[in-house]
Design a protein that fits this description.
69% of the residues lie in helices and 0% in strands. With 188 residues, it is mainly α. It has one domain (3-185).
Length: 188
């Protein structure tokens, strides 16, 4: 195995680690937002939920940092002298993460609106439009993640992914970060 092939494998491994960090923080952000949303929907004072919404926004921003790091690693694979399949795999993951980052940027924008207008009395249409755009970005990310996963599965001798708990040859990099729902599921 060439040094550059080993470097590509290391990039995938690092990306998997960063994606795991992202997923954990992402779930925390969604939990904070979900708690605030439930209380607002139950009739509690929306202004009392601003701290939870701010917490969700800040946690999601941290999560995006991990995903950006993973994406950079995949972009770096383009410079390596490795099998074209590996380069294509890295490119697909990079595109998937780019679309995911775009989706999350829109979700952060939505949380920013919620911080100022928790009941969405004045910004409902704008907020729903942002969530719709986030959902579109997420669908694009899912497509790229699925394409990368299919490429990995069809080239197991070239793309060596770590086995998951079931013994399947599938690492976390080709999967969409867990917990992401279509944008319109997140709205208030």
């Amino acid at each position: 195995m060439s040094d550059q092939h080993k470097e590509a494998e290391n990039e995938v491994s690092r990306a998997n680690d960063e994606i795991a960090k992202h997923n954990q923080l992402f779930d925390q952000a969604r939990e904070s937002y979900g708690s605030a949303r439930e209380k607002i929907e139950a009739g509690e004072d929306p202004d009392k939920q601003k701290d939870k919404i701010t917490e969700a926004r800040e946690t999601l921003q941290k999560a995006r940092g991990s995903l950006q790091s993973a994406s950079t690693g995949m972009q770096n694979m383009r410079e390596l002298d490795v099998d074209p399949v590996i380069k294509k795999y890295g490119g697909l993951l990079s595109k998937a993460m780019g679309a995911q980052l775009s989706s999350e940027a829109r979700e952060i924008e939505f949380y920013g609106i919620m911080e100022k207008d928790p009941a969405l009395k004045e910004n409902r249409d704008r907020a729903l439009k942002i969530l719709s755009q986030a959902g579109d970005d997420h669908k694009q990310a899912e497509k790229y993640y699925a394409d990368a996963s299919e490429l990995a599965k069809s080239n197991p001798k070239i793309i060596d992914l770590p086995p998951d708990a079931d013994g399947e040859n599938q690492g976390s990099a080709p999967n969409a970060p867990e917990g992401q729902q279509n944008g319109d599921d997140s709205g208030g």
